[in-house]
Amino acid sequence: MIQITLTDGSLREYDQPLSVYELAASIGVGLAKAAVAGRVDGVLVDCAFLIEADARVSIVTPQEPDGLEILRRSCALMLSMAVKQLYPRAQLQIGSALGDGFFYEFTYERPLTLVDLAIIEARMKTLVATNHSIRRRDPSLRSTPFETLSPYLMGNFECVTVGPHVPATRVLQAFALDHISGTSSQRIYGTCWSCQKELEHWRAPPHVIVVSMDDRQLAYAQSVTEALRRIGVRATADLRHEKVRHKIREHSQNVPYLVVIGEKEKEGGFVSIRSRTGEDFGRMAVETVCEWLKSKGLARV
Asked: Which regions form coiled coils (predicted)?
C-alpha cells in the first residue's frame, strides 16, 4: 500500500505504484488536463514519474511559477525540433527558459531572417496541433531545474535538455517568436504563457522596459520586472544576449521609461532609470522606483 499526502494535508492510499499523471487523474479530470509536472517530496519531476513509495506530492500547473517555467522550457525544446525539421543542417547548441519566455541557440550556414522566424513559428504551431508526446528516456529518474541534462524524446526527435517538461506539445498553446539575433551562431527568442489572454496582455505596449547589461543580471532584472508588475505597471524585461546600447536604442522611442541594470545596480539593489527623451533620472532603489512610477500615474494598484 502506497500512502500519498497531498498539498492540503489529505491522505490517499493506492495499492500499486502510479505516475504523477495517474495521481492527478484520480483527483480530477481537470487537474490531470492542467498538470505539467509533479513535486514529489519537494523535487520537481515529469508527469510520467512513477511514485513507488510513500511520499508528499503536489501537482504542478502553469498557474504557479515553476509550472510556467516548465512551459517555457518545453517551448525551447519544441523550437529546437522545428528548427531541425526546417533546416536539417543546423547544429543545435543550447536552449532554456528566459524571463517571460525562452530561447534556443544554434549555428547555421546563413543568417536567418524575420521571414524564417514566421516559418519556424508556424512549424511550432503544427507540432502543437499534431500533439507529440514529450518523455524522458528513463522516466523513473528525478530531476530538478538547472541541475542535470537528460535525453528527452519529443515524438521521435531526441534532444539532451534539463527537465522536467510538459507531457505533450498540446499543452503549449500560447507562445510567439519575437527576436532573432546573430550570424553564424544565432539565437531565436520567444515568449510563452499559460493562455492566450496572458499572451495578449504581454503584447500590450509597456510603460517600462527593464534592460540587462549582460547575462549576470538576468535573475535580478526579472525580479525588478515582477516588482513593477505587482503595482500595476506594464513592464517587460529585455534579457537578450545583445549589447546594452543596442537594446536601449531599439526601445528608447517606444516606451516612456527604460530601467537599466548592470552589475553595480544588481550588487547595490537599485536600478538606473531614464526617459525615452534621454532624460537621466539616476539610480533609485526598487521600492523608490515603484513609488516614483505611481506618482507618474502608471501604477494601477
From this structure: none
| Cell (9 digits) for 160 | 539532451
End-to-end CA distance of the chain: 50
Interval 136-166: pLDDT, tens: 887 666 555 446 788 999 988 988 898 899 9
CATH topology of domain 66-201: Threonyl-tRNA Synthetase; Chain A, domain 2 (3.30.980)
Smallest CA-to-CA distance from 164 within 181, 150, 182, 185 is with 150
Which three three-digit cell numbers place residue 106? 544554434
Q: Closest Cα partner for 16 from 47, 40, 39, 50?
A: 50
* Torsion over CA: 190, 195, 201, 206 (sign): negative
Q: Is the dihedral of CA 286, 292, 293, 294 positive or negative?
A: positive
pLDDT the model gives residue 138: 74
| Position 237 confidence tier, pLDDT thresholds 50, 70, 90 | very high
CA distance linking residue 296 with residue 43, whole number of Å: 43
Q: What is the mean pLDDT of residues 75-93?
A: 96
Q: Are 59 and 67 a contacting pair, CB within 8 Å?
A: no
Q: Please return the burial class of 75, using the count of CB atoms within 10 Å of its CB with bins 0-12, 13-18 and 19+.
A: buried
State pLDDT tens for residues 95-135: 999 999 999 999 999 999 999 999 999 999 999 999 999 99
Q: If one looks up domain 205-296 in CATH, what number appears?
A: 3.40.50.800
Instruction: Read off the pTM.
Output: 0.90
User: What residue spans in the chain does CATH classification 3.10.20.30 cover?
Assistant: 2-60
Is the link from the previous residue into 164 a cis peptide, with omega within 30 of 0?
Answer: yes
Say what the pLDDT of residue 301 is: 54
- Kindly report, as residue ranges, where domains of CATH 3.30.980.10 are found in the chain: 66-201
With CA atoms as reference, report the closest residue to 67 among 106, 27, 128, 24.
24
